[in-house]
Amino acid sequence: FPPRSVTQVPVLEGKSVQQTVEMLSKKLELLGAEKHGAFGVDCETYHTAAAISSQGQTGKLMYVMHNSEYPLSCFALFENGPCLIADANFDTLMVKLKGFFQNAKANKIESRGTRYQYCDFLVKVGTVTMGPSARGISVEVEYCPCVIANDCWNLLMEFMQSFMGSHTPSIPSVFGTKHDSIYSPADTMVQYMELFNKIRKQQQVPVAGIR
């Protein structure tokens, strides 16, 4: 499974989210990248129900996520905790567990956009939305021939600099914890969870019953 870097790109001054996405896409196309379909990643927030929290346990947030790259899988992540990879029926299970976990529906966030192929790189430029409004921009870059994250970070960074310039990210924290082990889909979802939470905090959108 190829290592991927997921990062937020700031909206250019005086431009909208959509205009910035278009400018990034244009830079990629000028490099020679070709459109390669669409992608989508979504995230719903669940919090422990009041019945559990009242027993003195600390309420914990859980994020249930989907990625169009893995249409048969569903990911359940805890902040600073494990990532469970389940089949797509996990959503149905969460409905049955509503006595334990409640869905903060107002907090659903997703990133959708276009995939681009450039030589051995796959790039996904997405518009991050909460409800009806665009909240930010995500860029995911993978280096297809490699499976060890630290082996290809310099290549990834060099390529990202060619179209992201000064907004090229530093090495993702999940790369640091992998050392020489093989990169996994869960590592990508952790990066999206961190990006979505960062965008939520920037927007300072309160979520009823969580904070």
UniProtKB/TrEMBL annotation:
| Source organism per UniProt | Odontophorus gujanensis (marbled wood quail)
Q: Does the keyword Transcription regulation apply?
A: yes
Q: Does Transcription regulation count among this protein's keywords?
A: yes
Q: Name one GO molecular function term.
A: transcription coactivator activity
Q: Source organism's superkingdom? A: Eukaryota
Q: Where in the cell is it found?
A: Nucleus
Question: GO CC: one term?
Answer: mediator complex
Coiled-coil parts of chain: none
The record's similarity note reads: Belongs to the Mediator complex subunit 20 family.
Its biological function? Answer: Component of the Mediator complex, a coactivator involved in the regulated transcription of nearly all RNA polymerase II-dependent genes. Mediator functions as a bridge to convey information from gene-specific regulatory proteins to the basal RNA polymerase II transcription machinery. Mediator is recruited to promoters by direct interactions with regulatory proteins and serves as a scaffold for the assembly of a functional preinitiation complex with RNA polymerase II and the general transcription factors.
Name the principal localization, coarsely classed: nucleus
Q: What is this protein called?
A: Mediator of RNA polymerase II transcription subunit 20
Classification via InterPro entries: Mediator_Med20
Q: What UniProt keywords are attached to this protein's entry?
A: Activator, Nucleus, Transcription, Transcription regulation
How far does the signal peptide extend, from start to end residue?
none
Q: How does it assemble?
A: Component of the Mediator complex.
Q: Name one GO biological process term.
A: regulation of transcription by RNA polymerase II
